[in-house]
């Protein structure tokens, strides 16, 4: 299995029957949806064209954001996407990131995606961040979240002791 699939397997155990989930357009999140598309009676709310397509033949309830298409990421962003997300309160926000650093927090490569992810987290009871080992100590362009907004961090390999201690101090449950 690749690192994204390993992360998806670990993250999927945090998702329960009948959960409602806001999920972003990241490729690791897509792997979680692939794993769970035919089970657990889940409601998915997403800004990802690929996730909507993945769920077409499933029994899941799917709510797609409107918005402006970002061609290379197959994501919908902008005011229309935010308006849809504002209408729902969900159990889980499932998000990926471009980078995670102790100084800058969780970052994304562009502001449009960052704003959508931030709104998803605002609307959720629990936030699960998916980040493979390459994201640690890296920054994207746009500041997205602070560590206080994250409940779980799921990654593919054990981070350094410095990171383990840092996440423990921030009260983030680390799964690897």
Describe the structure in your own words:
With 176 residues, the chain is of the alpha/beta class. It contains 6 helices and 12 strands. α1 crosses α2. The mean pLDDT is 97.
In short:
By secondary structure, the protein is of the alpha/beta class.
Question: How much is the radius of gyration in Å?
Answer: 15 Å
Mean pLDDT, to the nearest integer, reads: 97
Q: Report strand order across the widest sheet.
A: 3-2-1-6-9-11-12
End-to-end Cα distance, whole Å, is: 14 Å
Question: Describe the biggest sheet?
Answer: 7 strands, parallel
Q: Which geometry do the CA atoms define? A: globular
Low-pLDDT residue spans: none
The helicity comes to 25-40%
> What structural category arises from helix and sheet content?
alpha/beta
Overall number of strands: 12
Beta-strand share of residues: 25-35%
DSSP helix count?
6
SSE arrangement, N to C: HEHEHEEEHEEEHEEEHE
Which properties best describe this structure?
176 residues, alpha/beta, 3-stranded antiparallel β-sheet
Task: Give the SSE layout.
Blueprint: H1 3-12, E1 20-23, H2 27-36, E2 43-46, H3 49-54, E3 61-64, E4 68-70, E5 75-77, H4 79-85, E6 90-95, E7 99-101, E8 105-108, H5 111-122, E9 124-130, E10 142-145, E11 152-154, H6 161-169, E12 173-175
Parallel strand pairs: 1-2, 1-6, 2-3, 6-9, 9-11, 11-12
Antiparallel strand pairs: 4-5, 7-8, 8-10
């Amino acid at each position: 299995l690749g690192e994204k699939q390993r992360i998806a397997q670990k993250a999927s155990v945090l998702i329960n029957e009948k959960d409602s989930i806001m999920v972003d357009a990241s490729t690791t999140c897509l792997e979680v949806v692939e794993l769970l598309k035919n089970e657990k009676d889940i409601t998915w709310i997403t800004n990802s064209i690929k996730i909507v397509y993945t769920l077409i033949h499933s029994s899941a309830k799917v709510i797609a954001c409107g918005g402006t298409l970002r061609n290379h990421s197959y994501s919908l962003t902008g005011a229309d996407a935010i308006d849809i997300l504002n209408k729902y309160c969900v159990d889980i926000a499932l998000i990926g990131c471009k980078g995670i650093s102790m100084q800058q927090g969780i970052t994304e490569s562009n502001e449009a995606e960052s704003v959508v992810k931030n709104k998803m987290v605002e609307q959720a009871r629990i936030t699960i961040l998916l980040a493979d080992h390459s994201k640690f100590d890296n920054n994207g362009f746009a500041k997205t979240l602070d560590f206080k907004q994250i409940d779980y961090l799921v990654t593919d390999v054990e981070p350094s002791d410095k990171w383990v201690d840092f996440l423990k101090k921030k009260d983030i449950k680390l799964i690897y």
